[in-house]
C-alpha cells in the first residue's frame, strides 16, 4: 500500500525535470521519461478503477519524451513547457478533490498555449486554443462549484444530482474537440500548429484527462438515460464528421488531429452507452469498452503524431520523407489500429463499441431503442472514412513517398506500433467477466471476449489472439506456396505527354469533395495548403456577426444613458436571476 503523499514525489520529479530541461533539453527529456515510468508503476500498484488512465498517460509521456530527445530543435523553451504540461496532467489524474484537479487542468493548458504560440509565425492558433481552453475551464469550474454547493465539500464524493455532471461534461468535451465544438476546427488548428512531440501529448493525453474527468463525474453521479442518449448522439456525429474532415485534410498533423475528434466521439458514445445500459452486465461491458478505446486512441495517436514529426513539412504533397522498412511496418500497425482493424487494439475497441450499441438496441424496449442502432450506423460510416484517412496518411508519410535511408526518429513510433498490435492480442485483461472459450471451435478458455446481454445470454464474441495467429499462419502458407511476390513495372504512356508521377493527396479525397460539395468547400490557406472549409464554422460566424449587430443596436437604443431603461434592465435581470436560483 503506497502512502497517500506518494504522488507528490512524482510531482517533484517532474519539477526537477523542468528545471534541468532549461539547462539541458536532452537531460530534461530523459528525466521526464524516467518519471513517466515511475508514474506507470504508481498506476499499476494503486489498482483502482482509474489505474488504466495512469498506465495510458504514462506510456504516452514516456514515448513522447524519448522521441523528443531526437526531435527537439525548437529552442530552449519547448522542453520545460512540454514537461510542465505533463506535470499538470499528472496532478489532474491523481487529484482527490476539485481544487487539485482544476490546478492540474490549468497547469496542463497554459504551457500548451505557450508551446503553440512560441513555435508559429501566426498567432491565431494559440489564441484559438487558449480561448476554447478557458471556455472549457469555466464550464468545468461551474460544474465543480455546483457539486460543492450540493455536497459541502471539495472532495470527490457521491453526488445526488446530475447537474454537475452535465455542466462539467460540456466543459470536458470542449477540450476533446467534440461536436459541435470541433466545427470551429479549434483542436486541429491548435494541434496541427504545435511541434509533433507536443501534438502527441495534446491529442493523446490531454484529451485523456478530459475523458478521465467525464468518467469520474459519471461514476459519482446518478444515472441519467436521457443525458446518455444525448452524449451518445453527440459522439456519433463527432465520429462521422471528425473522420470525414480527416479524410479530406492535406495537413500532416491536421489529419491525425481530426482523427482525434473521431476517436473521442467514439469514446463519448461508449460513455453514453454506459448511462443508458438496461442492466449492469451491458453497463460493465460499455465501461470496459471506454477504457479499451482510450488505450487504442492514446497509444496509436501518439505513434502517428511522432511519425508526423519524423518528416519535414506540413503538406502531404510537399513533405520530405526518409523511409525504411521499420517505419513502414510500425506505421501500418498504427494506422490499421486507427482504422478499427483486428487484431490491433483499435479493432477490439471498435468491435466492442458496435457490439454495445447493437446489444442495447436489442435489449431496450422503448421508443428510444433506435438511438443506439442509428448511432452505431453513423459510427460505422465514420469508420469507413477513418480507414481511408489512415491509408492516406501512411501512404504519403512512409510507403509511397520519399527515398529510403536511415531515420532514427522513426524507431520510436514503430515500437509504439508493435505495442498496439500486441495490446490487441492481450486485451482480455480489460474485460474481466467477459472472457471464456469454446471447445467446439478449438478455442481455449480465456481466449474469447464475449459480449453479453445478461449474465446468461451471450450476444457475440471475438478472439484477437486467434485472429493474429491465423493471419500469421495464412501469410506463411501463402508465402510458402507462391513465394515472394514478383513486381513488374512498366513505363506509363500518356499520349506523349510526361505524366505526373505523384498522385496528390488532394486528389485522394476528391470523390468525397464532389459528392459532398455543399458541405465541403475548398479554399487555399495562408501558407498555401489546400483545405476544406467548414460550413458549420461559417454558420457560427454568421450568427456571431448578427449577434454583434443586434448587441450594438440594443446598446444604442436602450442602453443610451436613459435612467428609465437602466431601471427596467436591472429589474428584469433581477427577476431572471431570482427565478433561476429558485429553480436550481
TrEMBL record:
Show the InterPro entries listed in the entry. Answer: CPA3_Na-H_Antiporter_A, ND/Mrp_TM
Q: Does the keyword Cell wall biogenesis/degradation apply?
A: no
Q: Which keywords does this chain's UniProt record carry?
A: Membrane, Transmembrane, Transmembrane helix
Q: Which residues form the NADH:quinone oxidoreductase/Mrp antiporter transmembrane domain?
A: 95-319
Pfam families attached to this UniProt entry: Proton_antipo_M
UniProt superkingdom:
Archaea
The portions of this protein that span the membrane are: 5-23, 29-46, 53-71, 77-94, 124-147, 159-183, 226-247, 329-354, 366-389, 410-431, 465-483, 563-583
NCBIfam families hit by this protein: PRK06459.1
The molecule here is called: NADH:quinone oxidoreductase/Mrp antiporter transmembrane domain-containing protein
Amino acid at each position: 500500500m503506497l502512502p497517500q503523499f506518494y504522488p507528490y514525489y512524482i510531482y517533484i520529479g517532474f519539477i526537477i525535470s523542468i528545471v534541468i530541461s532549461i539547462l539541458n533539453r536532452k537531460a530534461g527529456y530523459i528525466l521526464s521519461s524516467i518519471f513517466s515510468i515511475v508514474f506507470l508503476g504508481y498506476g499499476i500498484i494503486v489498482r483502482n478503477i482509474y489505474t488504466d488512465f495512469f498506465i495510458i498517460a504514462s506510456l504516452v509521456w514516456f514515448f513522447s519524451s524519448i522521441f523528443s530527445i531526437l526531435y527537439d530543435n525548437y529552442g530552449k523553451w519547448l522542453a520545460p513547457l512540454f514537461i510542465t504540461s505533463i506535470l499538470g496532467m499528472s496532478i489532474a489524474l491523481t487529484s482527490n478533490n476539485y481544487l487539485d484537479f482544476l490546478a492540474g487542468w490549468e497547469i496542463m493548458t497554459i504551457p500548451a498555449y505557450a508551446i503553440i504560440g512560441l513555435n508559429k509565425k501566426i498567432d491565431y492558433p494559440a489564441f484559438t486554443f487558449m480561448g476554447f481552453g478557458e471556455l472549457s475551464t469555466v464550464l468545468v469550474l461551474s460544474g465543480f462549484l455546483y457539486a460543492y454547493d450540493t455536497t459541502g465539500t471539495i472532495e470527490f464524493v457521491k453526488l445526488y444530482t446530475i447537474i454537475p455532471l452535465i455542466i462539467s461534461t460540456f466543459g470536458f468535451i470542449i477540450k476533446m474537440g467534440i461536436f459541435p465544438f470541433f466545427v470551429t476546427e479549434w483542436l486541429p488548428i491548435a494541434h496541427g500548429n504545435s511541434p509533433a512531440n507536443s501534438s502527441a501529448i495534446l491529442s493523446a493525453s490531454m484529451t485523456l484527462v478530459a475523458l478521465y474527468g467525464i468518467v469520474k463525474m459519471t461514476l459519482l453521479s446518478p444515472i441519467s438515460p436521457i443525458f446518455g442518449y444525448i452524449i451518445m448522439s453527440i459522439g456519433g456525429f463527432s465520429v462521422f464528421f471528425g473522420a470525414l474532415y480527416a479524410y479530406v485534410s492535406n495537413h500532416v498533423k491536421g489529419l491525425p488531429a481530426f482523427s482525434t475528434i473521431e476517436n473521442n466521439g467514439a469514446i463519448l458514445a461508449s460513455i453514453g452507452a454506459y448511462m443508458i445500459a438496461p442492466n449492469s452486465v451491458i453497463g460493465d461491458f460499455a465501461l470496459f469498452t471506454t477504457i479499451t478505446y482510450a488505450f487504442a486512441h492514446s497509444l496509436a495517436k501518439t505513434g502517428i503524431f511522432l511519425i508526423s514529426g519524423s518528416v519535414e513539412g506540413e503538406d502531404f504533397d510537399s513533405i520530405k520523407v526518409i523511409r525504411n522498412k521499420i517505419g513502414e511496418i510500425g506505421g501500418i500497425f498504427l494506422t490499421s489500429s486507427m482504422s478499427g482493424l483486428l487484431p490491433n487494439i483499435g479493432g477490439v475497441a471498435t468491435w466492442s463499441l458496435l457490439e454495445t450499441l447493437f446489444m442495447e438496441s436489442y435489449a431496450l424496449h422503448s421508443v428510444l431503442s433506435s438511438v443506439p442502432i442509428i448511432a452505431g450506423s453513423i459510427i460505422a460510416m465514420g469508420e469507413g472514412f477513418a480507414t481511408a484517412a489512415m491509408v492516406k496518411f501512411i501512404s504519403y508519410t512512409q510507403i509511397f513517398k520519399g527515398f529510403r535511408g536511415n531515420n532514427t526518429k522513426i524507431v520510436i513510433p514503430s515500437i509504439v506500433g508493435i505495442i498496439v498490435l500486441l495490446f490487441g492480442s492481450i486485451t482480455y485483461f480489460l474485460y474481466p467477466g467477459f472472457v471464456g472459450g469454446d471447445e467446439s471451435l478449438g478455442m481455449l478458455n480465456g481466449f474469447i471476449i464475449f459480449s453479453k446481454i445478461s449474465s446468461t445470454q451471450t450476444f457475440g464474441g471475438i478472439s484477437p489472439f486467434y485472429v493474429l495467429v491465423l493471419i500469421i499462419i495464412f501469410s506463411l502458407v501463402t508465402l510458402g506456396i507462391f513465394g515472394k511476390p514478383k513486381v513488374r513495372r512498366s513505363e506509363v504512356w500518356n499520349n506523349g505527354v510526361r505524366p505526373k508521377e505523384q498522385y496528390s493527396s488532394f486528389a485522394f479525397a476528391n470523390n468525397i469533395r464532389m459528392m459532398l460539395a455543399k458541405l465541403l468547400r475548398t479554399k487555399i490557406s495562408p501558407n498555401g495548403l489546400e483545405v476544406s472549409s467548414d460550413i458549420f464554422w461559417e454558420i457560427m460566424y454568421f450568427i456571431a456577426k448578427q449577434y454583434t449587430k443586434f448587441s450594438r443596436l440594443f446598446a444604442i437604443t436602450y442602453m443610451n444613458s436613459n435612467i428609465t431603461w437602466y431601471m427596467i434592465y436591472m429589474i428584469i435581470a433581477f427577476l431572471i436571476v431570482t427565478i433561476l436560483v429558485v429553480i436550481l
